[in-house]
Design a protein that fits this description.
- Belongs to the ALG14 family.
- With 221 residues, the protein is α/β, with parallel strands linked by helices.
- It has one domain: Glycogen Phosphorylase B (Rossmann fold, 3-Layer(aba) Sandwich), CATH 3.40.50.
- It contains eight helices and seven strands; from the N terminus they run H-E-H-E-H-E-H-E-H-E-H-E-H-E-H.
- The chain has a seven-stranded parallel beta sheet, sandwiched between helices.
- It binds 2-acetamido-2-deoxy-beta-D-glucopyranose (2 copies).
- One 2-acetamido-2-deoxy-beta-D-glucopyranose (NAG) binds next to strand 3 and helix 4.
Length: 221
């Protein structure tokens, strides 16, 4: 009887604490206060994966000044030699700062059963948490490969616990004209992404908080 009482009480307190941390996270990020001090450079993290996403992301990152974003981490799935090679090529063409490629096990291989994918997803998530916790990026930019979900969630979790100050930005693919992708929608509705950037303005009708690339460029000036 007593045991059950204390168990229930601690579960309630735990959920309450989690709720408070989550709300505090949402409020802090909603205010769009500068979360980081760029004086000594910023740590940038991105996730590469699947051909199209990798190309789009590396094109985007060319606009990020290497002296400001002087510590760049590319997270790639450990079976993804293509993205790794592309990241190396892209880094050879830029100057300023330093970079690192971090491997992460894939959450789900094609054709894997649902049951075993629970474990591989868990393993990928712990790995993501470990990488994000070590690097403590100021900015996480992702655009949709499967491995970006555990990385974005890890970054949000560590920020909720106040171990990091991280902004999470999701850049939606140009193919998304009418609706957000599932990953983007999750990050949008949960408030985990500080910004969901879309390429088509009509998406604002359905998702008023998204920003277009043009708006981002204007506000960055
Ligand atoms: C990726 O590279 C490693 C070693 O560099 C190699 O052993 C592996 O076969 C490659 N995988 C693919 C899918 O090309
Ligand atoms: C980036 O910063 C992290 C955390 O301070 C550090 O561990 C890592 O070695 C740095 N990476 C590079 C490429 O300098």
């Amino acid at each position: 009887m007593h045991g059950a009482f204390w168990t229930i009480l601690s579960v309630i307190l735990f959920l309450l604490a989690l709720g408070v941390l989550y709300l505090w996270f949402i409020i802090r990020h909603f205010k769009r206060e500068p979360l980081v001090d760029p004086k000594n450079g910023l740590r940038l993290m991105t996730v590469l994966g699947s051909g199209g996403h990798t190309t789009e992301m590396l094109d985007l990152l060319k606009n990020f000044d290497g002296k400001t974003y002087n510590n760049r981490t590319y997270v790639v799935a450990d079976t993804d030699n293509h993205s790794e090679r592309k990241a190396l090529e892209s880094e050879q063409a830029r100057s300023g700062g330093d970079f690192l490629i971090e491997k992460i096990p894939r959450a789900r291989e094609v054709g894997q059963s649902k049951f075993s994918s629970v474990f591989t997803t868990l393993r990928a998530s712990l790995h993501a948490l470990w990488i994000v916790g070590r690097i403590r990026p100021a900015l996480v930019v992702v655009n949709g490969p499967g491995t970006c979900v555990p990385v974005a969630f890890s970054a949000a979790l560590l920020d909720m616990l106040r171990l990091t100050n991280t902004r999470i930005v999701y850049v939606e693919s140009i193919c998304r004209v009418e609706r957000l992708s599932l990953t983007a929608a999750i990050l949008y509705y949960s408030g985990i992404a500080d910004d969901v950037i879309v390429q088509w303005p009509q998406l604002k009708d359905t998702y008023p908080r998204v920003r277009t690339l043009d708006e981002m460029e204007t506000s960055a000036r």
